[in-house]
Amino acid sequence: MKRASILLVTALALAAGTAAFTQSFSVQLGNPRGPAQPVKFPHDIHAGKLGMDCLYCHYGAEKSAIANLPPVSTCMGCHKIAVTDRPEVQKLAGYYERGEPIPWVEVYRLPDHVKFNHKRHVRAGLTCQTCHGPVQAMNVVVQYPSLKMGWCVSCHRERMNDPGFPASTDCLICHH
Amino acid sequence: MSEFTFKRRDFLKLVGIGVAGTTTGCASRPAEKLIPYLVAPNDLLPGVPYWYASTCRECSAGCGILVKTREGRAIKVEGNPAHPVNRGGLCGLGHAALQGLYHPDRLKSPMLKVNGQWKAIGWDEAIRTAADRLATAKSGKRGVAVVTGNATGSFEKLAREWAAAAGGTHLVYEAFGHEAVREANRRTFGQAVVPTFDFARAQMVVSFGADFLETFGSPVAQARGFAAMRAQPQAGWFVTVEPRLSPTGARADEWVAVRPGGELALALGMAHVIAKEGLGRGAAGVDLSAWMPEAVEERTDVPAKTIERLARAFASRRPSLAIAGGVAAQSAQAVALAAAVNLLNHMAGNLGETVRLDQALNFDAVAPFRDVQGLIEKMKQGEVDVLVVHGADPAYSIPAWAGFGAALDQVLFKISLSSVMDDTAERCDLVLPETHALESLGDAEPMRGVWSLVQPTMQRVPMFDARPAGDTLIALAKAAGFGAFPDTWDAYLRNEWKARHARFGAGRTFEAFWEDALKQGGVWEEAPAGKPGAAWSGTHAFASPELQGVGEVAVVLFPSHLHDGRGANKPWLQELPDRTTTAVWGSWVEIHPDTAAKIGVAQGDPVRVETAAGSVVAPAYLYQGIRRDTVAIPLGQGHAAYGRYAQGRGVNALALLPPAQDEASGALAYLSARARLSKAAGESALPLAQPNMHQADRGIAQGIAVASLIAMEYTGGKAGRVLEPARGEGERAGSAHPAPLPPGATPEEAAHTPAGLGKEGPRGVNEPVLLETPPSQRRPGLYTEPRQLKPGEVIPPHAITAYEPEEKVRSPRQIPVHEGSYSNPNHHHRWAMAIDINSCNGCQACVVACYAENNIPVVGPEMTKRGRQMAWLRIERYEELLGGGPNDVRFVPMMCQQCTDAPCEIVCPVYATYHNPEGLNAQVYNRCVGTRYCSNNCPYKVRQFNWFDYAAPEKETFAFPEPLNWQLNPDVTVRSKGVMEKCTFCVQRILDGKGNARDENRPLRDGEIQTACAQSCPTEAIVFGDLLDPESKVSKLSHDQRRYWVFNELNTKPGITYLKKLERESELA
């Protein structure tokens, strides 16, 4: 009897743990609110109101697997002169003068074991907004898609027979 | 009282586990910070690899390399295809340079020894301390001595000038300095050089103990030439003369198991026959009358008939090539041996044909060992105040009898410029750490007419406060107030290159020339077109070497893939199975099974080898490829210091050497001792990666007789064009496969091969015991050829290929299978590989390259013993014929065969391994749950399971201690515990190549995508490509008449096609 109760309790404990563990995969991807950043960079001003090209700052997106964050010097290219009176711009200048890179907080969380290549997607003619959403309208950037596999694959399936840039649904393309 | 009770406390524990699981499961991963550049470096984009041309500084050969960097870190080294030394290949030592760069035991700052304790100090203090000592030494009567390795180029010049300015002496010390070869060439041809060899043209090669595929000369270049020679079915016979079959010798068609030290007599015996029978040029005034074959037989145990046969073949198959000068055969008569071999080459007219004294390797500055002894004597006498050591580890690589260690104590102040605490640095007073070659500027002149540049491929690894040795020397000179050097090493080097600019920089400014040279990796002359021969200028007195001491066996010390010990601190190299024994992480004693039986030793039992000078204990490896009267021990292990991977591992076999050296050249005699053997106490311990070297009728490494090839009008191979195959016609024609015999040997002679190996006859050595003729030779084509059904025979459903014509069975393999969900019409490739085992020397460069490319962890000796090495690619060694006489050892690179009908795929319960539409057998790590069914079902055993968390820093099994993890390839997942992994055909490289082609809007070019193994292979034995492109190299090779598939009868339809080894048994008859 005691033995049976041990088994029961063990089974319950394991089941609870496993359920929680599995859950953690699904609920923790992405952050719907958007984290606070060290400098409140408004994408809606830069990309929306001023109409700057995304690739002006994230110039790696079309040349590299990684869409780079702009170096602080890129910001200072304009903000040495532009709106230097704003407190957030002064914060930015402070980082630059101290020789300190800005510790941006990650917004997009690609799950582990996935390789994503920006260059391939940009060159296939996708707009940045296709995946990143209307960034030009976001004051605080949020993770727009879920970045779950189903989200990726649904698009890849649609474009599987695209004559110009057929998308592959082969696992190895992302998981290697 | 063992009744099972359940206490309240246990209950709470279990509930606790559940709660803990729940809460940890819900905790979110802390937000990562993304740190941008403050100011982005020019032309550097994260995620894009950048390549830098440089020069490998791991040995004297100086191969050209291309270093791949990502995000400013060097992550891979590859051979530079444009470099004249290596033409794209690179050895394992070169690949492992990365682990020297990121070695966790590199010194973090200058170290000063205070009262026997090491203390970290700053550079200013270090320079001041050393400069004070140097200034005192310069003004006093006692002097300064500088010892450097064979750096060649500008650094060597700087060291020489620096030593002169300091009022001291400079000595270039290289353990394997080829002194005997240089001295012999000086005496016989008037040129003290180490020649290069044109193997590709040689019709026959006889090696007198020269390990030209390992450490002798320029191994990568030689391996390349050797493979070109072996690709010609009607040429390229290779005979090795040595008492222990070395990995180089393993490639031979015939092994003449000569008595240790008898190589000289054999060479002279051959010369005698050539002279007597008038087969070649005269003997150049050398008196050969005493070296009658019969007399030589007495000295060498090689029958006179064999000597005559070899001599006749050598003289008639021109140009031929004889080579001597390996460390294992370097006896007290090393120059005599090299001179005798020179005589053979002279008589056969090989000078200027296959032996090129004009394109010599650069060992010019290397001092003979005698000069090192002179320095030791000076040190003992107290004539050296300050000793500066760079790029050499003399405290380790000089045998104890020479007394270097004791002499060190007499030197007042010793400075090491080593980047790690090696055996010599450990004995010094001050260590001024040097930057690694991959993070410094420099140059090298590895051979005549080649000036190769070393350039920094990345910023210096910040945790190591090191400086280039050139800068350190200049700073010391300035602080001590001697010499007039430019301010920096950079300036010194550029100054040196002004001469190159004058010569090669026509019409360009120096800066433009310099940049071009850096991009190219150096400058070099076109190889001279002429074939300058060399006149015989002098001769040598010949006497056979005597071995010292008493005992039943001769001791052969041979260099392992750790070279002279410099590779011992690299975990990749420690984990790399030895080419002969497949032993890892230690030393061993190679011993003939019969000799072992006499002293009651079994495989792995500890053996004591005792000479007059000392004794060592190491596990026994029972080896058929060694004479009964010989044991062999590898060099390179047994370091007293040199970091966590090398220290205290194995034994330093140099302890066995009695005082002996070659009088003529002053070289150290490595082959000089006799020893007694006894069984030592202790447990059997010998971690072998491949404990069994028999194919057991499995046809893994297949051979084909040259006669059969000729019969089938063979036109393929590397050298020639590939035509459509004769569909197996010829192979059947060759089924009457004759018993293997040496070239031109009669059966009677073969039965009398007194190699010290056969059953003991009247003279102790008689009657060869050839191993059983391998089934693959008895029945060629067994595994690949369809055959007639016997009456009443039923075809087993799993083995149709043995009965059906191959085209019928195999053609579907060329079509991507798994239609349906893969009906995408845009997949155009079937990735495949062709591996020519006729070209594979088993050097394992590919294995190290694979470790580097694919983030493979090292697991250590214990796990290796349990068969848990993680290597995705291994070299299997199969000993078909071993025992003196005809010789056949085969090396097979074995990795995932990317089967079209893969047994692993169908058993995976979670679809973690599946077939990709381009023919790859894919493994998705994050889907794998670790059932290991796939590995159980894999006939090739090429899947590796992560039993431990090799990637978890907090675990004991962590394989990448900081900063070794900096080397990890960011394009490849670092696998975690419980996951199966395997060769992916470097899928990250395939994706990269396809992306590049798409960016340029063109189809893929053949050869554009190369796997790491194919890229690194010095002999191009591995060819990778697309099987659906009929013009690709791999398609053509896959239709070569020599092709076969391993375990074809299992109908897995592998993506790897092997090409059979050529068997040259009746070539010279």
Order of SSEs of chain A: HHHHHEHHH
Query: What structural category do the secondary elements of chain B indicate?
Result: alpha/beta
Parts with pLDDT < 50 across at least 5 consecutive residues of chain B:
18-27, 717-786, 797-823
Shape of chain B: globular
Radius of gyration of chain A: 22 Å
Work out the count of structural domains of chain A.
3
Number of strands of chain A: 1
Seen as an oligomer or otherwise, the chain set is heterodimer
According to DSSP, the number of beta strands of chain B is 39
Number of helices of chain B: 32
User: At the third CATH level, what is the topology name of the domain at 179-361 in chain B?
Assistant: Dimethylsulfoxide Reductase, domain 2
- Specify the CATH architecture of the domain at 179-361 in chain B: 3-Layer(aba) Sandwich
What is the percentage of strand-forming residues of chain B?
15-25%
Radius of gyration of chain B: 30 Å
Low-confidence stretches of chain A: 20-31
Mean pLDDT over the full residue set of chain B: 85
Q: What is the CATH class of the domain at 179-361 in chain B?
A: Alpha Beta
The separation of the N and C termini of chain B measures 83 Å
C-alpha termini separation of chain A = 49 Å
The computed structural class of chain A is: mainly alpha
The percentage helix of chain B is: 25-40%
Structure description:
Chain A has 176 residues and is an all-alpha fold. Helices cover 44% and strands 1% of the residues of chain A. In chain A, helix 4 crosses helix 5. The longest helix of chain A is centred in the N-terminal third of the chain and has 26 residues. In chain B, strand 2 and strand 3 form a beta hairpin. In chain B, helix 6 crosses helix 11 and helix 8 runs parallel beside helix 11. About 10% of the residues of chain B have low confidence. The interface between A and B is large, with 64 and 60 residues.
